[in-house]
Amino acid sequence: MRAQLARVDAVLVQAxxxxxxxxxxxxxxxxxAGQDGWKAWAYPVSVDLLLVxxxxxxxxxxxxxxxxxxxxxxxxxxxxxxxxxxxxLDLGDVPAWLxxxxxxxxxxxxxxxxxxxxxxxxLADDVELIEDQEDEPETAPESSTPAPPAIEAPPxxxxxxxxxxxxxxxxxxxxxxxxxxxxxxxxxxxxxxLGVPAPMADAIAAHL
Length: 208
Fold this sequence. Notes:
Elements: H1 2-32, H2 38-60, H3 64-88, H4 96-118, H5 120-135, H6 164-181, H7 187-194, H8 198-207
Helix pairs in contact: 1-2, 1-3, 2-3, 2-4, 3-4, 7-8
């Protein structure tokens, strides 16, 4: 546990030292390019914020192309300032192209920060909306009138025992009636032909 904390502390100290040196170098370049007072201190803040915003977009996994682009731009600005203050550039006589770059940096940083802040959240909102729509269960539309049953319920069979021979005979009588008249035999005719009481006729008709 102590070894892990020691490693974290060492990394944090190293990061603070590197950030402070880079911050000071960017400030010195801004002063040499004609930016004085609070403006010179705002330049390193702008560069570091763009670098952090691009890194966070890379870590989020969305819009990686734009994130890499602005990360490289911010890193080049930071490294360029570090190299310029290493004696390779006369800070007392800064060339015109460097003055132009320093003067145009606020617009570039504003554009990059705006694109990084507003490009990915819209995509995340769209994905969240799609997921919410997929999770919502489909509900059947309400209707003011009840739906009719798919199959009509069969009539109840009368609890009257019917011999199988009588049912067979009734089938023959009903078939003969249908062949002769072309229409199905009703219960009243069936009762008259068989000479059975009404409950028995209803029971036979239920079997047919």
